[in-house]
């Protein structure tokens, strides 16, 4: 019996359906699969030639459909095909495979729910670690102040588990079907963030696997350099396998207001007033097109929590002094979970209409409060319903800088700043329109950067390493040091293009 794989069983980035990957041949940079020829020689000795894959609790696959799926994301713009996908059965698997990849200088990218817009969770020819199998939610009771969750858990599952005990993480993204590891690697923003900071500001401890395969527990007081390099660290220094997240009491119901403004300045001034006063528990906003296609319908979305967290919402108190159009106020009382999951029906419609499969060259920027109107006006003037695309959305909402304490989540230098997102859709085969959108994104970023703004690093934009250095600014040296310490061979998360 041959002890080395035949040419047929060595995978040159080629799929092998149904086979178990057992080895990696460093000479050919290819994976080898089990077959009668490559199976153990019978005396317990590993086959010579390819390096043997560590024993795994989960599975390592190289079949075509897994590789193709891992070479796509919500953006549908970038397609880098990995050579294998790990579905870990345990944290031990993540450790073992990162050590293995580090030894063989193979790139590795963790992938949560794959909702990145520009290949951030992809790698050409390396290993994708799909974290969805690491989704355990730790024990809880009504007195818990934190919950420990697997990095692959979705925020919807975390919300349901904690609400069963009357508790909630303080901040959610608008869409709940994102993974904990995915949003903690970028920041995690939502309408509650003006009160509590981003999701990364509400993490008390992490368990991570570094680029050398070391499993480490870190927190603000234990290996703080690593903790601060991982939160909003774009997967550059370690893979998050578990996060401990702060909990607060949850409201039973909330009152949800939609207030319309026809004037951009007034809309933004009222946003800033509301977050400085912390009058509401949640504040967001959107800009949409009027009947003539001009983007000047400004809708402020504000939510007040009811008992047991807040008093019964009082419209007179909550809306006092605001300068919206009083004729168009919409007010809805709903359960807290319905509110958190409010965009689920919209997402279902987008999927039904095939728009989820459209390209998403999203633009995500942060404006200093003082220049928000000046920066937004030309971008909104240039926007048309056609360039936004069907199902596209413009988000525009305020955040309070003092609540943001995570060094790698870069925020503009102003006490109030605004998140501004143009969430475009483009027909997937219209590459010229995608290129135009990416060029427009880049031009907008350059203008905003010059005015003291930043970008929220989730959208579609072509960036150089120098751009990243500029983006991280004063936080760059610590990130660079951590990269050299924790991922010295630079194998982690190349799709971000940071190093
Ligand atoms: C419909 C939609 C709505 C959104 N709404 C919001 C919102 O309201 N607020 C907001 O802040 N963002 C929002 N986002 C952006 C979203 O938070 C990011 O794109 C996030 O990274 C996606 O999570 P994911 O699990 O899909 O991550 P993936 O796309 O799988 O990964 C994103 C990045 O994180 C890295 N990563 C993933 N898991 C880990 C891990 N365990 N350890 C280390 N790095 C990891 C990946 O390698 C990659 O670089 C939205 C995106 C979409 C598509």
UniProtKB/TrEMBL annotation:
The keyword Flavoprotein belongs to this UniProt entry's keyword annotation: yes
Organism superkingdom: Bacteria
One Gene Ontology molecular-function label: cytokinin dehydrogenase activity
Cofactor needs: FAD
Annotated ranges, domain FAD-binding PCMH-type: 78-250
Stretches the record annotates as Disordered: 31-52
UniProt-listed InterPro entries: Cytok_DH_C_sf, Cytokinin_DH_FAD/cytokin-bd, FAD-bd_PCMH, FAD-bd_PCMH-like_sf, FAD-bd_PCMH_sub1, FAD-bd_PCMH_sub2, FAD-linked_Oxase-like_C, FAD-linked_Oxidoreductases_BP
Protein keywords: FAD, Flavoprotein, Oxidoreductase
Record GO biological process: cytokinin metabolic process
PROSITE patterns from the UniProt entry: FAD_PCMH, OX2_COVAL_FAD, TAT
Protein family: Belongs to the oxygen-dependent FAD-linked oxidoreductase family.
PANTHER family linked: CYTOKININ DEHYDROGENASE 6, GULONOLACTONE OXIDASE
Protein name: Oxidoreductase
């Amino acid at each position: 019996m041959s002890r080395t794989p035949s040419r047929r069983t060595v995978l040159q980035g080629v799929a092998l359906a149904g086979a178990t990957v057992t080895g990696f041949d460093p000479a050919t940079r290819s994976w080898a699969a089990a077959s009668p020829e490559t199976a153990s020689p019978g005396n317990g000795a590993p086959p010579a030639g390819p390096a043997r894959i560590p024993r795994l609790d989960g599975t390592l696959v190289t079949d075509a459909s897994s590789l193709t799926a891992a070479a796509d994301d919500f953006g549908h713009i970038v397609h880098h095909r990995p050579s294998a996908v790990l579905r870990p059965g345990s944290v031990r698997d993540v450790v073992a495979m990162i050590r293995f990849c580090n030894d063989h200088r193979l790139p590795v990218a963790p992938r949560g729910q794959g909702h990145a817009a520009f290949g951030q969770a992809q790698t050409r020819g390396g290993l994708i670690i799909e974290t969805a199998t690491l989704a355990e939610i730790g024990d809880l009771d009504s007195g818990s102040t934190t919950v420990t969750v697997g990095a692959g858990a979705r925020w919807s599952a975390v919300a349901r588990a904690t609400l069963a005990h009357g508790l909630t993480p303080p901040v959610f993204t608008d869409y709940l079907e994102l993974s904990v590891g995915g949003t903690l690697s970028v920041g995690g923003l939502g309408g509650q963030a003006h009160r509590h900071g981003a999701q990364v500001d509400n993490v008390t401890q992490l368990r991570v696997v570094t680029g050398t395969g070391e499993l480490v527990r870190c927190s603000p007081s234990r290996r703080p350099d690593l903790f601060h390099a991982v939160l909003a660290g774009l997967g550059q220094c370690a893979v998050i396998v578990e996060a401990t997240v702060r909990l607060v009491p949850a409201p039973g119901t909330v009152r949800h207001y939609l207030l319309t403004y026809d004037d951009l300045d007034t809309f933004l001034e009222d946003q800033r007033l509301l977050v400085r006063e912390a009058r509401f528990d949640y504040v967001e906003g959107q800009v949409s097109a009027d009947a003539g296609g001009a983007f000047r319908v400004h809708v402020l979305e504000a939510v007040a929590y009811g008992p047991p967290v807040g008093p019964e919402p009082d419209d007179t108190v909550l809306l006092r002094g605001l300068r919206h159009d009083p004729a168009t106020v919409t007010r809805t009382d709903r359960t807290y979970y319905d509110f958190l999951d409010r965009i689920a029906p919209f997402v279902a419609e987008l999927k039904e209409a095939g728009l989820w499969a459209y390209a998403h060259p999203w633009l995500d920027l942060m404006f200093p409060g003082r220049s928000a109107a000046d920066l937004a006006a030309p971008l909104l003037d240039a926007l048309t319903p056609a360039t936004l695309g069907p199902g596209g959305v413009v988000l525009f909402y305020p955040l309070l800088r003092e609540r943001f304490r995570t060094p790698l989540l870069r925020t503009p230098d102003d006490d109030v700043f605004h998140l501004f997102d143009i969430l475009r859709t483009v027909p997937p085969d219209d590459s010229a329109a995608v290129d135009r959108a990416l060029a427009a994104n880049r031009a907008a970023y350059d203008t905003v950067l010059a005015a003291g703004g930043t970008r929220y690093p989730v959208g579609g934009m072509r960036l150089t390493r120098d751009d990243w250095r500029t983006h991280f600014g004063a936080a760059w040296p610590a990130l660079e040091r951590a990269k050299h310490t924790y991922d010295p061979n630079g194998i982690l998360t190349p799709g971000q293009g940071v190093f």
